Amino acid sequence: MVHKMPELPLAPIDRLIRKAGAYRVSEEAAEALREILEEIAIEVSREAIELANHANRRTVTDEDIKLAAKRLLKTIRY
Fold first, then answer.
1. pTM, whole model, 2 decimals?
2. CA distances (Å), origin 78, targets 15, 40, 74
3. How many whole angstroms separate alpha carbon 39 and alpha carbon 8?
4. DSSP assignment letter at 23
5. Environment class of residue 50 by beta-carbon count within 10 Å: exposed (0-12), middle (13-18) or buried (19+)?
6. Contact 16, 30 (CB under 8 A)
7. Which CATH superfamily includes the segment(s) 10-17+26-77?
8. Is 42 exposed, middle or buried (0-12, 13-18, 19+ CB in 10 A)?
9. pLDDT tens for residues 3-36?
10. Where are the domains of the chain?
11. Whole-angstrom Cα distance, residue 34 to residue 49?
């Protein structure tokens, strides 16, 4: 099994969980959320790249990211 280096540091993930209302957060919980958030970020990015390509652009814009996230969230909710 190959371990990849995470892109997101744990401290901000811990703060996000606390911001949501947790009093204490285990390191394993922060690591689990980090892994999930990184997977979601990659999927949103892939979708945004497709949108940019479809528009004959090489640059991914904030609008591509927002639309990609909206599309993916719609598939998750149903």
1. 0.84
2. 29, 17, 7
3. 11
4. S
5. middle
6. no
7. Histone, subunit A (1.10.20.10)
8. exposed
9. 678 899 999 999 999 999 999 999 999 999 999 9
10. 10-17+26-77
11. 22
